[in-house]
Write a structure and sequence with these properties.
mainly beta; about 400 residues; elongated; 5-stranded antiparallel β-sheet; 2 helices
Length: about 400
């Protein structure tokens, strides 16, 4: 039998066409995360890749790898290509990879085991020959145990209410997928009764801004994803034309156009390919910026976990890093008059010993709000005067030679 060609773009662009029993892949130069749903009877590595091995430098599976030494000589622990597994294949240049064989069984059973550290994740193929939405392709009886799915440069996580969010929306024949679950399980993809999905209807993800060319388009076999739930800016508004950039050191290691809540940013790690030198190292904490259309980059901060390969993290919030103040200052209390709570904000341009105290009309100190060494920046503290009587009070700030006093009015 024959099937219509499937053309898709998700992560690295690839084209898969299955005709009779032949399998073609038009791959981007660099790493592509692929799988084989057409294979010959002889599954040895040299036999499967014999038609395109001159264009491949290395193939990496889960816990196995092989390096091409040329002239059909492969070195490494990867000896056979398995139909249920996915593989990172590093191509020298774009080209056509063909494998003649028999289509994989769409009812193939996949197994995900939990390792000794309790992590349940496997690098798997996708056996059915039809594009399918994530939630349709995963059987209902096990879907609640699926936590995340990763392919090259794209990812998806399942929320507590069972919704899938992220840049990855569909399973696509010929792609490979890291799948993480909450427990060990066996499953087969749903392959009958699926909604018909054309390749053009699969969500297209721009990998990097046109005006910001960089080496991140060399896909690494080591990658993590950071989902940003909330983005807070002080100096401007965030728009759909903005890009989130991930850095390790001075190297851009991932980008994603802002699409709102739970935008996922890939961060590439240093892999076996020399082209990924300078990408994130295991345990290194990436930093993030927001790139505006006019080329201005805004530094962001938040509680950011360290990079780990295949790590998937949800960042509750990223916020704009405010520039350090130029001088000491004590802002006007707000609200003032107040009952019974007011906020006192102040700025210090350098790390300093700071005291912030409340005095009554008689000049007696009635409350010490701050007394100690503080980092440079913008700070605020709340005074709850619930136990004090109505009247006039004074707040006094002392930082080095800087002294400022402000009148407060408590009205109950």
């Amino acid at each position: 039998s024959s099937y219509d060609p499937i053309v898709f773009s998700a992560g690295n662009t690839a084209t898969v066409s299955t005709v009779m029993m032949e399998y073609y892949t038009v791959a981007n130069a660099g790493n592509n995360l692929l799988s084989f749903n057409v294979l010959p009877t002889d599954l040895t590595l040299t036999n499967v890749v014999s038609e395109f091995e001159d264009n491949v430098s290395q193939i990496i599976g889960q816990g196995v790898a092989a390096i091409n030494n040329g002239d059909g000589n492969w070195m490494g622990s990867l000896l056979t290509i398995e139909p249920e597994d996915g593989y990172w294949i590093d191509f020298y240049e774009e080209g056509v990879a063909m494998v003649a064989g028999y289509p994989s069984n769409p009812e193939m059973v996949y197994n995900i085991d939990c390792g000794w550290e309790g992590e349940c994740v496997s690098l798997l193929s996708y056996a059915p020959n039809q594009i399918a939405e994530i939630s349709e392709a995963i059987p209902d009886d096990v879907e609640e145990y699926f936590e995340y799915i990763i392919s090259a440069g794209v990812s998806a996580i399942q929320t507590e209410d069972g919704e899938w969010i992220g840049s990855l929306t569909h399973f696509i024949p010929g792609k490979g997928y890291w799948i993480g679950t909450s427990q060990s399980l066996n499953f087969s993809y749903v392959h009958e009764g699926l909604s018909r999905v054309a390749a053009k209807d699969v969500r297209q993800i721009a990998m990097y801004p046109e005006e910001f060319e960089f080496t991140q388009h060399v896909q690494s076999d080591q990658q993590a994803f950071y989902f940003v739930k909330e983005l807070q800016l002080h100096s401007t508004e965030v728009t759909a034309e903005d890009w989130l950039l991930a850095y390790c050191g001075d190297q851009v290691v991932g980008t994603r156009q802002y699409v709102g809540e739970y935008t996922d940013i890939p961060a590439m790690g240093s892999g076996l390919s020399d082209a990924t030198d300078g990408y994130c190292q295991e345990g290194e904490v990436p930093r993030f910026t927001l790139l505006k259309p006019d080329g201005v980059e805004i530094d962001l901060e938040g509680d950011i976990p360290a990079f780990s390969s295949n790590g998937v993290h949800v960042l509750t919030s990223l916020s704009e890093i405010m520039p350090l103040p130029n001088e000491f200052s004590l802002d006007r209390a707000y609200p003032n008059p107040f009952n019974p709570v007011t906020t006192l904000s102040f700025a210090i341009p350098v790390d300093s010993e700071v005291s912030l105290s409340i005095y009554n009309l008689q000049g007696r100190e009635v409350s010490t709000l701050i007394s100690g060494y503080m980092d440079a920046g913008y700070h605020s503290v709340v005074w709850n005067a619930d136990s004090y009587s109505s009247g006039v009070y004074f707040v006094k700030m002392v930082a080095g030679s800087y002294i400022s006093t402000q009148k407060l009015m408590l009205v109950k």
